[in-house]
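Notes to self after the Tuesday call (sharing in case useful).
The group wants a holo model before anyone commits to mutagenesis around the pocket. I volunteered. Ligand is nicotinamide-adenine-dinucleotide. Logging inputs and output together so the record is complete.
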Amino acid sequence: MDDRTEKVAQWIIDSQRTVVFAGAGLSTESGIPDFRSPGGVWDRYDPEDFYYQNFVSSETSRIKYWQMSTEMYEPIRKAEPNPAHLAIAEMEKLGKLDCVITQNVDALHFKAGNSEGRVIELHGNATYVTCLSCGKRYDRDEIQEQLRKTQKAPLCDDCSGLLKPATISFGQAMPVRETEEAYNRSSLSDLFIVIGSSLVVEPAASMPRIAKRSGAKLVIINRDPTPYDGMADVVIHGSAGPTMAKILEQVKLHALKGMASR
Ligand code: NAD
Ligand code: ZN
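Result:
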């Protein structure tokens, strides 16, 4: 493990454009379960119940959706960033992060200290709610409280449109600006570090391939194997928090040595 973390640390130091690509595995150590691991949401709910088309067309589906979504939001509300989020925030402070492209909806990159301009949220953000008709934004906690009291799918107080957490559901279009930006940054990166993603969900899963094809070094840090392991320059099958903490420790050590030798 040491050799590999050392290598990744050196690549971060040498890189001009490091892109971090994050999945649900980055946040499991913050107490937010991923979906695919045993006991995850997909063991208990049928994904078909959560298609966007069903949400917009049926009140029964909306109520089911809000039930599942409330269950998922509870750990997100309480979560604090773990050492992997903090390491990514520290990369930004050191000037060693082009951006983090995240599939997570938990907003923990911001809690950790990353700035708005460095985080690309591909699947939206669960900490607020939007009106599907007029786009008005609501605080998630306020809507959850209203839901708890009324047990009805919430509606916009301006236009009576349907309110939905600001996350991307199955069958819902990916956000255009974020997706384009993510493809663009992936193709321009010279170091692409995947953390905690199974790399099976498209179109996000094609980004490591694009980065690699454009000449970036590819690093994969994930507990379980992924379909891209064979293409990667370094693969670490381990926990995100301790691995990233170790890498950052080495980056900082090198940075200090660099300053001392000047
Ligand atoms: P996923 O398919 O990317 O799977 C998560 C991967 O993380 C798995 O391969 C697992 O081996 C790995 N992993 C788990 N814990 C880890 C750890 N501590 N260190 C390193 N690797 C670890 O993601 P998913 O669970 O199928 O979720 C699908 C989508 O649902 C996500 O893309 C996201 O949009 C949403 N989601 C978001 C959150 C969140 O915001 N925290 C949580 C669950 C799901
Ligand atoms: Zn509205």
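Two things stood out.
The mean pLDDT is 93.
Residues 240-260 form the longest helix (21 residues).
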